[in-house]
Design a protein that fits this description.
The protein is of the alpha/beta class and 561 residues long. Among the domains are: 120 residues, OB fold (Dihydrolipoamide Acetyltransferase, E2P); 163 residues, inorganic pyrophosphatase (n-terminal core) (Alpha-Beta Complex); 100 residues, Diaminopimelate Epimerase, Chain A, domain 1, CATH 3.10.310. Helix content is 38%, strand content 21%. The protein is built from 18 helices and 18 strands. Strands 3-2-4-5-6 form a 5-stranded parallel β-sheet, sandwiched between helices. A 5-stranded mixed β-sheet has the order 7-8-9-11-10, sandwiched between helices. The longest helix is centred in the middle third of the chain and has 33 residues.
């Protein structure tokens, strides 16, 4: 059929006949796997998402050195500090490693930095404080891989350091007893995209590999799932296994703090999925550091007190509402100031009044709306904090590394990063980043595309197709929910609902198939609804009066030609 749909609708190519026949699956499922780059020999383990995806922890460089040093510290009753990060990945990494070491009898203290006062990564003052407390071993989680100066200082004052991280290393690794990071250039580990909590969990697997209590580590997988999904790492390879098993634990978690979060957010235990973490639980746990200190979320996920759990969950809910308001206000202000700069390949905006806790969220929303890398900076009198989000075509981590002579500190991933810069260097930093973006992006079409897995008829969705689609879960980065295109759907009914009637519900028919569809795009709820429409959508399930019902979540639609 001729492609007469809107230019921004991108229907992926049909899988070769050889792939479809060799897959021995429903053709639509095989097409989805092909779209996700799953090779024929990888299909069965991808769908099973079982222990075969889990790598041997000792394939991570320096793992043996780390295990030996930790056991020495435990036997000698040394004081061990776990130095985490303040986001969900860092908090869950810290909590899981602290619990695991406590089972081994470790004498553990924790350090979670202040997002607003300290920022990402190790800090010299914090290392000095830990030294004064008698700490002789620091284990970092979800940070430290670029903290060369801080690692050198720890060595100078007699503190051994074990770095566990998943961010991109520099050319030089920090001075430490062990540097465990699957992204090391010399890494032998078969999977590069573990979250920080995934790396911490591999360290625990190595520590417990000869211990009769190693099965107890399964109880930490709820934390692993939370950190992995919230950090938006690819949900492929070993991450599929960790999140799939982690969701099982999460849905039956004994952690009263998580139970209270689920209750307050009107989710339901037993029905939590990766989307529940991405859109509900993760943002609330991140709110603690954005609007205060990460210790609130750490206490919530580790407390055994129901009273404390209720108080902390309520506090987080209130902070989250405030965070949402601040994000909207800051986004509107940034968009206003950027109005005359939308032709540039990189959106950079700074202001003394931008709350540092929400600038990353604002940058992310700018990227989503305008499909360009975005950097939002909170200006301080001397030091300025920046948060950046990007598109696949522009590697932030590499760009910041090229600007490291202008930065006090930096770190992150290709599509999400942060930095600290002296105010006097802001102008030079902007100029250098803009030049990099111009060189890399000026010749590209950066208009947002709606990626469509396959064109289907509504009758194709009958029978057990939804249960087959569920075999691809958990959905997330690199493995998104399947998106379909259906043409010539007849609109039988439509109604508006929600606050100010800004959402739209449709009753659609094609042939003998009838489906309910919902659009949450306010712009699509404006104007006259055509009699026949072409629709792009995901299939979702919900429960109504105790029964599971299917509906189409419309991502876009247009009048049928």
């Amino acid at each position: 059929m001729e492609a007469n749909y809107p230019d921004h609708w991108q229907v992926l190519p049909t899988a070769p006949h050889e792939y479809l026949s060799a897959a021995h699956l429903h053709p639509l499922i095989a097409q989805l796997l092909y779209n996700r780059g799953v090779h024929i020999g990888e299909i069965e383990p991808f769908l099973a998402a079982d222990h075969r995806l889990s790598g041997n922890p000792f394939l991570l460089d320096d793992m043996s050195q780390a295990v030996n040093r930790i056991y020495k510290a435990i036997l000698d009753r040394e004081k061990i500090a776990i130095y985490g990060d303040f986001d969900v990945d860092g908090i869950t990494s810290t909590a899981s490693l602290a619990e695991g070491l406590s089972w081994l009898g470790g004498k553990v203290t924790l350090y979670l930095p202040d997002r607003l006062k300290e920022g990402h990564g190790l800090r010299l003052q914090a290392i000095e404080e830990l030294h004064n407390q008698g700490v002789s071993l620091i284990i970092t989680v979800d940070c430290g891989i670029t903290s060369l100066k801080e690692a050198n200082r720890a060595h100078e004052i007699g503190i051994d350091m074990i770095i566990t991280d998943h961010h991109m290393p520099l050319e030089t690794l920090p001075q430490a007893v062990a540097v465990i990071d699957p992204k090391r250039k010399d890494s032998r580990y078969p999977f590069l995209d573990l979250a920080g909590v995934g790396v911490a969990f591999k360290l625990l697997q190595a520590l417990f590999h000869k211990d009769s209590r190693k099965q107890s580590l399964t109880g930490l997988l709820d934390l692993v799932a939370l950190g992995t999904v919230a950090d938006v790492v690819p949900l492929i390879g070993e991450n599929r296994y960790l999140v799939k098993e982690g969701l099982k634990v999460l849905n039956n978690t004994p952690r009263v703090g998580l139970q209270e979060m689920v209750r307050l957010t009107r989710l339901e235990m037993g029905k939590l999925d990766a989307e529940s973490i991405s859109w509900v639980l993760g943002p609330r746990l991140n709110t603690a550091s954005r609007m205060g200190h990460a210790s609130t979320s750490y206490s919530l996920i580790t407390t055994g007190s129901l009273d404390e759990a209720q108080q902390l969950a309520t506090k987080l809910e209130e902070k989250n509402a405030k965070r949402q308001r601040l994000t909207t206000e800051t986004l509107n202000k940034a968009k206003g100031k950027l109005a005359t700069k939308m032709n540039l390949p990189l959106l950079i905006e700074d202001d003394e009044n931008y709350p540092a806790g929400v600038i990353g969220l604002v940058a992310g929303k700018l990227v989503h709306e305008f499909c360009k890398p975005a950097i939002v900076i909170t200006l301080g009198s001397e030091l300025c904090r920046g948060s950046a989000r990007s598109i696949p075509e522009f590697n932030l981590a590499a760009a910041l590394e090229q600007c490291q002579d202008l930065l006090t500190s930096f770190g992150g991933h290709p599509t999400a990063a942060g930095f600290v810069v002296e105010r006097q260097n802001i102008g030079k930093l902007k100029e250098k980043l803009m030049n990099l973006a111009t060189n890399q992006l000026s010749s590209l079409d950066l208009r947002p595309k709606l990626r469509i897995d396959a064109e289907v008829s509504l009758s194709d969705l009958a029978g057990d197709i939804f249960s087959l689609l569920q075999k691809l879960e958990p959905f997330g980065q690199t493995n998104p929910p399947p998106t379909f295109l259906t043409r010539q759907s007849k609109v039988l009914e439509h109604r508006y609902f929600g606050n100010q009637s800004k959402y739209l519900e449709l009753k659609l028919k094609q042939g003998n198939a009838i489906w309910r569809a919902v659009s949450f795009d306010p712009q699509k709820a404006e104007g006259e609804i055509p009699s026949y429409i072409d629709i792009v959508y995901e299939i979702k399930s919900s429960f109504w009066n105790g029964e599971e019902v299917m509906r189409l979540n419309l991502l876009d639609f247009t009048s049928s030609p």
